[in-house]
UniProtKB/TrEMBL annotation:
<dbReference type="InterPro" id="IPR036291">
    <property type="entry name" value="NAD(P)-bd_dom_sf"/>
</dbReference>
<dbReference type="InterPro" id="IPR051122">
    <property type="entry name" value="SDR_DHRS6-like"/>
</dbReference>
<keyword id="KW-0560">Oxidoreductase</keyword>
<comment type="similarity">
    <text>Belongs to the short-chain dehydrogenases/reductases (SDR) family.</text>
</comment>
<dbReference type="GO" id="GO:0016491">
    <property type="term" value="F:oxidoreductase activity"/>
</dbReference>
<protein>
    <submittedName>
        <fullName>Oxidoreductase, short-chain dehydrogenase/reductase family</fullName>
    </submittedName>
</protein>
<dbReference type="Pfam" id="PF13561">
    <property type="entry name" value="adh_short_C2"/>
</dbReference>
<dbReference type="InterPro" id="IPR002347">
    <property type="entry name" value="SDR_fam"/>
</dbReference>
<dbReference type="InterPro" id="IPR020904">
    <property type="entry name" value="Sc_DH/Rdtase_CS"/>
</dbReference>
């Protein structure tokens, strides 16, 4: 895989960082995005030592639509060299529908729908013209079908919409060697949970290690996964949510 370049959005922690380490060990060329310069450079150094052929860093805050455009502008010089895209970023906010305000709702929708949509629109056609590409997005836990949410209604709606984008993109690029899939993780052990939350999840038996999810994504990024396209893959270990 050392001839391949993969862009990972959200590469400095959790699933994104776990996947980046795996791809580095395979000698891939990596384009890693993060929002904190120190963490980004630390991750880049580790990935170079792990075997990545090249590592490019893309520092960009993601708090609104202008940031999405800015990120895409930073990716543009590398566009022709990227044949893999993994979006391991999608903020969540707990609030009932009646208490949520429009500004916060817009942020959740922008980051969970417009960000992946924009990146797929930007990189997908180039991958298709080159005859190969792999795109994987992170869906929401158990968001494989439309359901009611009391605490995360906007996030749930965004992730359900993302599933539709994945299936539409997979159909558009199906004959071009590009696959587009969504992985729906369960509760994954990352630094974004508080210690209290992690302890509670661990006791419940629902807490997964990031490597369990990067196992799946690594396969989806490979040549061997060409028949898997437009799939919405539940990765919650079969637990009830």
């Amino acid at each position: 895989m050392n001839d391949h370049g993969c862009l990972i959005i959200g590469a400095t922690g959790g699933i994104g960082r776990s996947l980046a380490a795996r791809l580095a060990a395979r000698g891939c060329r990596l384009y890693i995005h993060g929002r904190d310069s120190k963490r980004l450079e630390t991750a880049a150094s580790e990935l170079r030592r792990a075997g990545a052929s090249q590592v490019y860093t893309l520092e960009q805050e993601l708090s609104g639509r202008d940031d999405i455009h800015e990120l895409i502008s930073k990716i543009k010089p590398h566009r022709e060299m990227i044949d893999g895209l993994v979006i391991s970023y999608g903020p969540i906010r707990e609030s009932s529908l009646s208490r949520e305000n429009l500004e916060d709702s817009s942020f959740i929708l922008d980051m969970n729908v417009l960000l992946p949509l924009g990146l797929i629109q930007f990189l997908g056609p180039v991958m298709a013209s080159n005859g190969f590409g792999r795109i994987v997005v992170m869906g929401g836990t158990a968001s494989d079908h439309n359901r009611a949410y009391r605490k995360i209604p906007v996030y749930g709606a965004a992730k359900y919409a993302l599933n539709s984008i994945v299936r539409s993109a997979s159909a558009e690029f199906a004959a071009s060697g590009v696959t587009v899939n969504a992985v729906l993780p369960g509760y994954v052990k990352t630094e974004y949970y508080s210690k209290k939350s992690l302890d509670t999840l661990k006791k419940s038996g629902k807490l997964l290690e990031p490597e369990k999810i990067s196992d799946i994504i690594e396969y989806l990024m490979s040549f061997r996964s060409s028949a898997v396209n437009g799939s919405i893959i539940n990765a919650g270990a079969g637990l009830e949510w």
